[in-house]
Amino acid sequence: MRVQNKSILVTGAGGGIGEGIARRLAAEGAAVVVADINAELGEKVAADITAAGGKACFVAGDVTRSTDWARLVHTALDHGGRLDVLVNNAGWTHRNRPMLEVSEAEFDKVYAVNVKSIFLSAQHAVPAMRANGGGSIINIASTAGIRPRPGLTWYNGSKGAVITTSKSMAAELGPDNIRVNCINPVFNPDTGLSAEFAGGPLDEARRAKFRATIPLGRFSTALDVANAALYLASDEAAFVSGVCIEVDGGRCV
User: Fold this and answer.
1) Residue 125, domain member (yes or no)
2) Residue 221 counted as domain residue
3) Active-site residue (options: 155, 187, 197, 219)
4) Assign residue 133 a region: left if phi > 0, alpha if psi is -120 to 50, beta otherwise?
5) Residue pair 1/53 in contact by the 8 Å Cβ criterion
6) Is the CB of residue 177 less than 8 Å from the CB of residue 215?
């Protein structure tokens, strides 16, 4: 059990990559708080983990609201006795389209969900980790933050901000024994945002176009990303901070 008895909070865990991370960490012994804005989906994930013998609870939360973050962290402290690991997975994107066709409201939402959430999470999670003598923060960014392509310009910028912010956090929080790292997944067709990334229904032509850019010849899966998160959450990564792990099949080479 690589994260036995660690108290871990995962946002956006009601489906897709976040669900995969929550399930994988719970299977490795963690007490997981499944956080999501969708109560029905999040409650199901937590119930499934519990039914499989793991330890999990659900808490509803909007990662763009400070009051919700206070509740998320408080739930993790109650559930696991402390907060060892935070996985900032919740994210959002505008539809793949020319940059000038993205509305101001869409832009604001992208930066609120993808970037402001990191700021708010730090406000509430860092004091809890300091009180515990350290911790690990894992921010799910994207290959879009290091190899941007047309059509997702504002999303790309938000993920670039996550990457740079994570590195700065790692430098600043190192003396507190708080590690901060990123995971950069490549396109995953099984997420709820796949049509937005693709610019329309994910037909075989769009799949083939994306797949052709990945040297290993397949898309990423939730398990691929979850395995990287498991490593960064574990004591095996005790001296790893300020890094980005591309889970991308060679896409960013």
Assistant:
1) yes
2) yes
3) 155
4) left
5) no
6) no
Question: 39: domain CATH number?
Answer: 3.40.50.720
The total of structural domains in the chain comes to 1
111 is catalytic: no
pTM of the prediction?
Answer: 0.97
pLDDT of residue 192: 78
Query: Cβ(176)–Cβ(127) under 8 Å?
Result: no
**pLDDT tens column, 167-213:** 999 999 999 999 999 999 998 887 877 878 788 888 888 888 889 99
Cα separation, 165 vs 101, in Å, equals 27
Helix axes 153-173, 117-131, angle to 10 degrees: 20
Please say whether the beta carbons of 177 and 125 come within 8 A.
no
Read off the tokens for 125. Answer: 């999670």
